[in-house]
Task: inverse folding
C-alpha cells in the first residue's frame, strides 16, 4: 500500500537535545532511511523553526507550521490537512486533532507530572500555570489521546500505566527509546577513574540529593553532574554538597559525555520516577555499569545488568559503588550491560514505529 507519513519534528531543540528532542531527531532519521527503500512510502517532517531542518536527514521534505506551544495548535490539523497525508505521528500527546482528515498517532513518554506536578523552570509563567492545571486531572490527557487513532508509549512501564489509569480507548503500542552512544574501544579496568556520573535534569523527583549524600561514604570519589542546571537548583545543590567532591558541568557535548561515561566507575541515578531513562542505555552501551533506583522502568531497561538500590538509600548507593571496585564484579556488570544495551536501537524502534503506522492506516476509520 502507498503511505504518506507526516512526522511532527517540532519538538527538536536547536540548542541542545532533551529526551523528547533526541527521540524525535533519531527515530525520525531512521524512519526516513527505512522509507527511502520502500516504494510508494514517504515522510514529510513538520517543523515550526527553519533551524530544525538542520537536525533532519539531508534531502528530507519539510513543511513549516505553527509552534506546538502556540495558540495555533488548536487549529493545526487544518494546516496539516492541506498536505494530503495519510497519517501523522507526533512524539508528544498534545498535537491538535480537530477536523483532521488524516490518521493520527500520539506519544506518551511518562506520567511523571501527575505524581510530581512541579513544571520545568525554563517554562514561562503562563505555560507553568497551564502545566499545573493540565496535571490536576486525568481528563485532559484522556481527551487528547482519544482524539487520536492510536497511542505510542516509549516503554512497557508507561503502557501499563496508561492501562492502569484508563487513559484511552485507542490501541497502545510500545516503541522504545534507544541510545546514541556506541562503544569504540572499551576502557580497561585499570584506567577507569574514581568518578561517578549523573545525566538528567534537577527536578525534585530526580532525587539528586541522595547521590550527593552517598559521597559521605565515598570521599575519594567525584560526582559529575553533567546536565544544564538552573541557577536556583545549582545554589541549592552546591549548599548541600559543601565538603563533598561534586562537579557541575552545566551541559556537555556528545563526545565529552561519552568520554566521561567511559572513564567513570558507574552512571548513577536515584530518580523516583521515569518514563524511560536514556542515560541508562547510553552508559551500558559504552560498557559503564549502572547503579540506579529500584523502580519499574529501570527494572525493564536495566534487566540483569544494572545494580538496583532503594531510591532514598544513600548508603545503598555507596555500597554498590564499592562493589564495583572488585574487578570481577565490574567486568561482569560491563559484559551484562553491553548485552542489554544491544537490545535497544533507533533503527529497531523506527521499524516498530513504521509497523504501527502501516497497521493503523490499514484499519478502517472509526
Result:
Amino acid at each position: 500500500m502507498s503511505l504518506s507519513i507526516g512526522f511532527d519534528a517540532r519538538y527538536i531543540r536547536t540548542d541542545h537535545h532533551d529526551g523528547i528532542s533526541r527521540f524525535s531527531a533519531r527515530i525520525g532519521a531512521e524512519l526516513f532511511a527505512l522509507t527511502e527503500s520502500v516504494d510508494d512510502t514517504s515522510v514529510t517532517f513538520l517543523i515550526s523553526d527553519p533551524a530544525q531542518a538542520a537536525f533532519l536527514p539531508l534531502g528530507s521534505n519539510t513543511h513549516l507550521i505553527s509552534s506546538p506551544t502556540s495558540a495555533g495548535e488548536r487549529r493545526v490539523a487544518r494546516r496539516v490537512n492541506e498536505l494530503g497525508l495519510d497519517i501523522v505521528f507526533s512524539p508528544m500527546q498534545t498535537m491538535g486533532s480537530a477536523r483532521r482528515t488524516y490518521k493520527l498517532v500520539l506519544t506518551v513518554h511518562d506520567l511523571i507530572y501527575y505524581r510530581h506536578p512541579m513544571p520545568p523552570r525554563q517554562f514561562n509563567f503562563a505555560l507553568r500555570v497551564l502545566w499545573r492545571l493540565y496535571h490536576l486531572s486525568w481528563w485532559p490527557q484522556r481527551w487528547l489521546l482519544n482524539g487520536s487513532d492510536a497511542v505510542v508509549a516509549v516503554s512497557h512501564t508507561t503502557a501499563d500505566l496508561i492501562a492502569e489509569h484508563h487513559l484511552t480507548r485507542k490501541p497502545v503500542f510500545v516503541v522504545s527509546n534507544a541510545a546514541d552512544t556506541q562503544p569504540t574501544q572499551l576502557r580497561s579496568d585499570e584506567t577507569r577513574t574514581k568518578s561517578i556520573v549523573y545525566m538528567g535534569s534537577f527536578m525534585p523527583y530526580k532525587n539528586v540529593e541522595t547521590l550527593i549524600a552517598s559521597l559521605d561514604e565515598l570521599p575519594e570519589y567525584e560526582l559529575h553532574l553533567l546536565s544544564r542546571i538552573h541557577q536556583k537548583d545549582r545554589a541549592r545543590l552546591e549548599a548541600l554538597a559543601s565538603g563533598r567532591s561534586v562537579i557541575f558541568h552545566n551541559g556537555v557535548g556528545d563526545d565529552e559525555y561519552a568520554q566521561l561515561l567511559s572513564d567513570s566507575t558507574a552512571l548513577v541515578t536515584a530518580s523516583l520516577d521515569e518514563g524511560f531513562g536514556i542515560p541508562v542505555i547510553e552508559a551500558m552501551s559504552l560498557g559503564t555499569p549502572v547503579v540506579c533506583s529500584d523502580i519499574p522502568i529501570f527494572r525493564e531497561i536495566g534487566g540483569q545488568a544494572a545494580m538496583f538500590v532503594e531510591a532514598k538509600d544513600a548508603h545503598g548507593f555507596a555500597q554498590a559503588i564499592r562493589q564495583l571496585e572488585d574487578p570481577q564484579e565490574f567486568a561482569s556488570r560491563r559484559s551484562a550491560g553491553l548485552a542489554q544495551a544491544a537490545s535497544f536501537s533507533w533503527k529497531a524502534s523506527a521499524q516498530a514505529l513504521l509497523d504501527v503506522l502501516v497497521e493503523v492506516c490499514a484499519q478502517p476509520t472509526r
About this structure: The mean pLDDT is 91. The two ends are 20 Å apart (CA to CA). The chain has two domains: 3-178+345-362, 189-341. The domain at 189-341 is CATH 3.40.50.2000 (Rossmann fold).
